[in-house]
Design brief:
The complex is a heterodimer. By secondary structure, chain A is of the alpha/beta class. Chain A contains nine helices and seven strands, in the order βαβαβαβααβαβαβαα. In chain B, a hairpin with a 4-residue loop joins strand 5 and strand 6. Classes of the chains: A alpha/beta, B alpha+beta. The complex binds flavin-adenine dinucleotide (FAD) and NADP nicotinamide-adenine-dinucleotide phosphate.
């Protein structure tokens, strides 16, 4: 029986690339995101192009009380379950987050607590199944707090630690957890933002993600050279770093 | 509202070069919200128009490339409904293996469905299949008021006809429904025949066109005297299974491959001059030794011979190039073409890609380019003196009752445009109703002084 992959944040540009590449190899999909109109269109597109089965549910990270039910629906439809990809993320606006605490909380919930809330029951289901994988999209922004985006960065950093712990727990039962830390990608999150460099195409990042999960990598920087860039950035001593404009 | 970014854009001919404020919506709600902005707007597909049609220097350019979902397909009728940003090469990749092909395709597969409708593009089968719009059932159009209207031959019919060939000036096409055609194989049974001059070319078109749905001629526009208009005519029809070799029969519906060849740099402008092009044309004409030649070709080299090199437009150097494509009515074609070819070869305005094709009946008429007659297309690098020369050709075209293809144009004057498109006023009346404030604008529309 064909296995299914679940994508949370399926309307993301990166998720669309991942969905196409998975569907192209015949994997069934289950999509979750907050925009129903878009979910339906994306699902139709995948069905027409690749003749795979695609289900979807509305999922809003901030509506915690709905997550249990959505998770049940996902598990009923995406069965047997091959893996889960978490693409959800919200860059938000750092200056706004410094004055509007609700905005700051929404960023944290969209990147972190909402992710914990939906990944936890899905991880438990994989644990019971005793196989499968979880891919979580973190960010290089989670490697070091920077004045330009530390609310987002802190949530991504927290997600990285969460995934790390989950990896260690699930490795005992044969479920693999991979953390992805992309650099800049050419997506709707970043389109039009100033200061981008070495911007990668989501199609290429998606290809690398699927390769890396096959090889059961633990943490990958994508494209690979971000590993080097972040090693340098992490090595800058704090007294100097705090004076920099990053 | 979505973010915007400043970008320098051009069309395929890389002239003119225009700074634009660009947005790239990825979902429908962002696109409809973007309209609230007061700046003028223009949708852009893959920028395969040559000149200033896909540019908007004074307002926003809306890149349609990520609105590229297929939303419905009826495997009985071959009707596909998809968003306007879907490129034709993706339609081929999905549907050729299932035995479907585009009813009409231009000479490159790197155009979007929106661009194909907005210029009502034609293919090698215009003489029997008409232009792209003939196969379009309906589309959704976002107009300046923010409304989304369904347009078809029966619903908002005026707007349907004004948007077909309307160059993005009536609104933004969101999604469209159109028919694909059934094919037995991905191959074309082709037949090439040489014509030693224009008279013979025209006679051969008339003789073979009834037999083949696809036809086009490559014409050596540097040949003079008795050889004026010497050409190689290429006809084709979809190959049936029995036409294929045993090897091809194993998989009769393979799709095109992705091209890996690119031109890494702009070529120096002197590369393409009358001597190099003259030699190229000599070689090309004599490459085919026999008078006639038959073959089974894959659809990719047959329909899209230029797609195998990405960015081939860089061959024309930094200054860019234009394509002068005109159509002349049947009655004046022979004399008009002779005059245009004579003038080009006399003045040495070399073109190494010149294409001649017969066009048949045309359904959409307001601003669509095709009309029954002959169309000639010359690629010409931009050099001093070119504009004056092309003005002369415009006068020939107008005298013959013909017109210029605005998808390839960057320079025709407002007056010549009006003389070439007699239904312009009818079109403008419809534009005035849906876009009284001229919200949808382009560098081309400003050049041609298109004002509701
Ligand atoms: C190598 C080559 C060969 C060609 N051969 C042919 C041929 O054989 N026959 C032919 O007819 N043409 C031919 N063309 C021209 C090409 O087919 C047209 O210019 C076509 O419109 C390009 O489509 P695009 O998606 O790149 O649109 P663009 O060039 O980006 O835009 C073209 C026009 O369409 C409008 N537009 C784009 N999307 C939308 C939308 N969603 N809603 C409203 N308006 C929109 C734009 O505003 C603009 O006015 C050729 C071009 C090349 C480069
Ligand atoms: N682009 C980059 O440069 C970059 C760099 C590093 C890491 N990343 C990460 O990569 C992942 C993919 O992002 P992307 O670049 O493809 O951007 P994107 O298109 O903006 O994707 C973000 C996704 O998260 C969804 N989302 C946000 N908040 C949500 C909420 N509260 N509830 C439910 N869904 C929510 C979005 O839904 P809507 O579509 O409805 O908005 C969208 O599906 C994200 O985790 C991002 O943080 C991106």
């Amino acid at each position: 029986m064909t296995k299914s992959v679940v994508i949370i944040g399926a309307t993301s540009s990166l998720a669309r690339s991942l969905a196409h590449q998975l569907a192209q190899r015949g994997t069934n999909l289950y999509l979750a995101a907050r925009d129903e109109v878009e979910l339906d269109r994306i699902a139709q597109d995948l069905k027409i192009r690749y003749h795979v089965s695609v289900g979807w549910s509305r999922f809003e990270a901030l509506e915690f009380e709905s997550h249990r039910e959505i998770c049940d629906r996902i598990l009923a439809a995406a069965n047997p379950l091959e893996g889960v990809i978490l693409c959800m993320g919200e860059l938000g606006n750092q200056p706004t987050a410094q004055t509007d605490i609700n905005h700051a909380l929404a960023i944290i919930q969209s990147n972190y607590t909402g992710a914990v809330s939906i990944l936890t029951p899905l991880a438990n289901a994989l644990e019971q199944q005793g196989s499968g994988w979880i891919v979580g999209i973190g960010s290089v922004a989670g490697d070091r707090g920077r004045q330009s985006n530390y609310v987002y960065g802190s949530a991504k950093g927290a997600l990285t630690l969460f995934l790390q712990g989950l990896r260690s727990r699930l490795s005992k039962v044969g479920v693999h957890v991979m953390t992805v830390k992309p650099g800049f990608m050419d997506t709707k999150m970043t389109f039009g933002l100033p200061g981008l460099f070495l911007v990668a195409q989501p199609d290429d990042v998606a290809r690398d993600i699927l390769k890396a999960v096959q090889k059961r990598k633990n943490t990958v920087y994508l494209p690979w050279f971000w590993w080097g860039i972040m090693t340098i950035i992490r090595a800058i001593p704090e007294p100097i770093f705090k004076k920099m404009k990053l | 509202m979505s973010n915007t970014v400043q970008q320098t854009l051009t069309g395929w001919g890389r002239y003119p070069v225009v700074k634009s404020t660009v947005q790239r919506p990825e979902n429908l709600s962002t696109l409809s919200h973007s309209l609230s902005s007061s700046a003028s707007q223009l949708a852009r597909g893959l920028g395969r128009s040559y000149g200033d049609a896909p540019l908007n220097h004074s307002g926003q350019t809306v890149l349609m490339e990520r609105l590229n979902r297929m939303v419905a397909f009826d495997a009985e009728t071959g009707r596909l409904r998809c968003e306007a940003g879907v490129p034709l090469h993706e339609i081929l990749a999905v549907f050729v293996p299932r035995g479907w092909f585009l009813s009409v395709t231009p000479g490159t597969k790197f155009v979007t469905v929106g661009g194909a409708i907005a210029f009502d593009v034609h293919g090698k089968n215009h003489h029997c299949a008409g232009s792209f719009a003939r196969h379009v059932e309906c589309f959704e159009l976002l107009i300046a008021s923010g409304e989304i209207l369904t347009c078809s031959r029966t619903e908002n019919a005026d707007l349907f006809w004004a948007t077909v060939g309307g160059m993005g000036l009536t609104g933004i096409i969101l999604e469209a429904e159109f028919k694909l055609k059934k094919i037995a194989s991905a191959y074309i049974k082709s037949f090439n025949i040489k014509a030693k001059n224009l008279d013979e070319a025209i006679a051969l078109f008339a003789q073979y066109e009834p037999l083949y749905p696809y036809s086009v001629a490559w014409i050596d526009c540097l040949a003079t005297g008795r050889s004026l208009g010497r050409s190689i005519l290429m006809f084709g029809d979809t190959a049936s299974l029995s036409d294929l070799s045993p090897q091809q029969q194993v998989n009769p519906l393979p799709i095109h491959e992705q091209s890996k060849l690119s031109i890494p740099l702009d070529a120096p402008s002197v590369l393409l001059n009358r001597y190099t092009m003259g030699s190229f044309n000599q070689l090309y004409y004599h490459r085919q030794m026999q008078k006639e030649q038959r073959a089974i070709a894959h659809y990719d080299p047959f329909f899209y011979p230029l797609d195998f090199v990405n960015d081939w437009n860089r061959l024309y150097g930094k200054r860019g190039f234009v394509q002068y494509q005109c159509v002349l009515p049947m009655a004046t074609s022979h004399d008009g073409l002779t005059e245009i070819l004579q003038r080009s070869s006399q003045k040495g305005w070399a073109s190494f890609l010149a294409v001649l094709k017969r066009m048949g009946n045309q359904e959409a008429e307001l601003l669509s380019f095709p009309m029954p007659g002959y169309t000639l297309a010359l690629d010409i690098p931009i050099k001093p003196g070119l504009w004056a020369f092309l003005e002369e050709l415009d006068q020939v075209v107008i005298r013959c009752g013909g017109r210029l293809y605005l998808a390839k144009d960057a320079r025709v004057s407002p007056a010549s445009f009006r003389a070439m498109y007699p239904q312009y006023e009818d079109w403008l009346a419809i534009k005035r109703q849906v876009d009284p404030d001229n919200h949808f604008r382009s560098t081309l529309s400003e050049r041609l002084e298109i004002q509701p």
